[in-house]
Design a protein that fits this description.
Strand content: 15-25%
Strand order of the largest sheet: 3-2-1-4-5-6-7
Oligomer: single chain
CATH class of the largest domain: Alpha Beta
Shape: globular
Order of helices and strands: EHEEHHEEHHEHEEHEEHEHEHEHHH
Length: about 350
């Protein structure tokens, strides 16, 4: 039996990693060929979503950042109660999809997914305590793992270079998109650009605002719609609409309605929103940073995210040729499915268990 630990899942907080964890579980329920048990915290008791589960009450999950750090620290310092509820003796392998191995285990053999190593490349974006914690937790997790999942070749390269991990221990498994849900519909697109991202430093909102002023010089009819957390009380330029955190159905409608997605991130371990937008037929202008070129292929118009002029020019280009970029995007998104992601995880689990 393969164990999958979602103990550090905090619903609505951990962003793309939550999407990955939940969609992986759903896809394993559809196409997986092994026996699984999902270990969940009390605050995410629904996360197993059809697979057999154990709610680990010994893990003191909390929603706040201090509470989350305290829960992980306690589980690392006093792992016995959590380990007992994980029933380790009956598992052939244990997977930690959410980057941090909590608690640390040596038996059964474990795998950890690394979704990004932003702190290694952009340490200035983190407070000193958070940076210290990430460096300690990530290195400890990869050292204790027999195998490591990287969600892109870019992430694998960083793991090997920055953490000193042997390349043969790392498996690249791309994320997916729900193509039954994220699909185009026949409707006229509205005059707005979309950027779905929490207002974190690497998401590069300030340069986007500069670029948007340039865009409006040529397209004064356009607005810029922002979704995600962290915008409350922070000023935005004229023409920018802050929607904040929106339900997934609302985001889907935005993908289907926007004239284009603009994605100026300075770092991405994968880049889920561009692929979701492409699947919905939304043209994409994206940064060339991180894994975005690897993921988006020839289906995005790329730009230098440090140059507002380059961002503006890329957006204007896709707006001038929307049909071409829409067709490329739909074809590209079709290459990424959660079922394929799940099948590759099954291969990893078999390798982990020695089958």
């Amino acid at each position: 039996m393969v164990g999958i630990s979602l103990l550090t899942l905090v619903p609505g907080v951990v962003g793309g990693s939550e999407t990955y964890a939940r969609e992986l579980i759903r896809a394993l329920a559809r196409v997986g060929e092994l026996d699984y048990r999902v270990f969940v915290p009390e605050i995410a008791a629904d996360a197993a979503d059809g697979l057999p589960q154990t709610t680990v009450t010994a893990y003191r999950a909390r929603r706040s950042l201090p509470g989350r750090l305290t829960a992980m620290t306690l589980a690392a310092a006093h792992p016995g109660p959590v380990r007992r509820q994980l029933d380790l003796d009956h598992l052939s392998g244990l997977h930690f999809p959410l980057t941090v191995m909590v608690p640390s285990v040596r038996r059964p053999p474990a795998a950890t997914t690394i979704l990004d190593l932003q702190h290694e490349l952009f340490p200035r974006f983190f407070s000193r305590p958070e940076l210290a914690y990430r460096r300690l937790a990530y290195r400890r997790s990869v050292r204790a793992s027999r195998l490591i999942v990287a969600i892109s070749a870019h992430v694998k390269e960083t793991i090997v270079e920055r953490l000193g991990v042997e390349p043969e221990r790392v498996r690249v498994i791309h994320l997916g998109v729900d193509l039954a849900r994220f699909r185009p519909v026949e409707r006229e697109r509205k005059p707005f650009l979309l950027y779905p991202a929490n207002r974190w430093p690497h998401k590069n909102h300030e340069r986007l605002f500069e670029a948007f002023a340039l865009i409006r010089g040529e397209r004064p009819d356009l607005t810029l719609v922002l979704t995600g957390a962290g915008h409350d009380g922070r000023p935005v330029p004229s023409g920018v609409v802050v929607r904040g955190h929106v339900p997934s159905d609302d985001l889907l409608e935005l993908y289907r309605s926007a004239s284009a997605l603009v994605f100026p991130s300075l770092y991405e371990g994968f880049g889920q929103p561009p692929i979701e937008a492409m699947a919905c037929g939304c043209p994409v202008a994206a940064s060339h940073a991180g894994a975005l070129r690897e993921v988006c292929g020839d289906a995005a118009r790329y730009f230098d995210p440090t140059s507002p002029r380059a961002i503006a020019d890329a957006v204007l280009d896709v707006l001038a040729q929307p049909d071409e970029w829409t067709a490329r995007g739909i074809a590209r998104a079709a290459l990424f499915t959660w079922d394929e992601c799940a099948r590759k995880h099954d291969e990893l689990y078999r390798e982990l268990g020695g089958d």
